[in-house]
Sequence to fold (449 residues):
Amino acid sequence: MESELLRQQDAFFQSGATRSLAFRLQQLRSLLNAVQTHEQAVLDALQADLHKSPTEAYSTEIAPVTAEIRHALRHLAAWMRPRRQPTPLLHFPAVSRIIPEPYGRTLIFAPWNYPFHLLFAPLVGAVAAGNCVIVKPSELAPHTEAVTLRILAEAFDPRHVAAVSGGPEIAGELLKQRFDKIFFTGSPAVGKIVLRAAAEHLTPVTLELGGKSPCLVDATVPLDVAARRIAWGKFFNAGQTCIAPDFLLVERRIQEPLINALRAALSEMYGSQPQESPDYARIINDRHFERLSGLMDPARVVHGGQTLPAERYIAPTLLAPVSPEDAVMQEEIFGPLLPILTYDTVEEALELLRRYPNPLAFYFFTQDRALRQRLLETVAFGGGCQNDTLVQVSSHSLPFGGRGQSGMGAYHGKHSFLAFSHQKSVIQRALWIDFAFRYPPFRVPLRWL
Ligand code: NAD
Fold:
């Protein structure tokens, strides 16, 4: 049974209201306006939900969204234009075009870790592509959910874009309805539920999932810089980042110096008492706090390890030596625990990497060109960086997405527009000439074909 909201959105879409460039630009401007108006409320909500510092919240939640909107405003006219393509000689005279078309009724699910960014960034693509949208914010970040609802209500007519709030039950109800495109960000387990439900209606799906993203470090890099960039990427949002380095794979002879460099980087960033740092986030809820505490084997803690259950605080923690058999290596960590594994030969490192499903991200710190080439050719992953962490996510020109267990499809910049568009291929033929040889009875010798 279709909901009243979906019926209204369907009628709105069928009316053609979302088709024009002018409408889409106006809606994107309206969204930009509403986001800017509620900027402080968004920062407060992220502080309340995750103890995100205003700087971190602004740079990873608000700025990426406003940048996506501005990028779309600048390029949308070009993205929407039908693209002329070459026509095979056989079909001459003719003109071939690809016409990007909105899917129609779309559904976006957001997770709780970047609850603002990961809802609004795909929404920009959906609106730019001319769709109607229902968004389902994460119920686990309730303050951000509340301000999200306010922004959406202010920016959009609900027949065009509306939010439905609730947990798995409501999400399940939504998934029973027929959408023309579903965009899901979340865990691989729920991703499977979404894909199964979408199969019922043969709805195309983009899945932005997670996994264990490895970070390899060899002895050719300056360890102080590597340690700063790793600690920054891992302990941002207290490790609750889908593309955070999940574990380190370190050339054995630099294990000790790298641990020392990581300790130094952590104390520069968060001081000797990270629970007092305004820049260090908290774990989202008690369930995740307990799960993470359970993964912390005290015998392996070489730095950190302290917890404050009342605040859901877990110190930035280094674990070493860790083996692939340890509990912390059996699931995506999604928290501030950094296991350190070692390797002696590149073969050994590659063999370990092959044990895990394709990760969303892969990082490698090396100045060895041959190793870089080998890693790029042999490790399958969504996206990543050489000599840094996380920064691949902030480029409009790089499609962001996983492969295999870490997802399917991609977005950001023009790729978001494409994720929410069907590419309609059309050949426009001329009528002034018509060759008889194409029609039966066929007389053309096979060797001419
Ligand atoms: P989650 O899968 O639990 O929830 C995501 C969304 O699905 C939420 O809106 C939630 O309400 C909904 N949901 C939960 N259970 C459901 C069910 N049974 N049926 C239908 N919908 C349901 O994920 P999460 O805990 O919010 O986020 C953490 C996960 O997301 C991690 O695995 C992380 O790596 C991944 N993630 C991926 C990206 C990415 O861009 N690839 C970004 C952030 C997080």
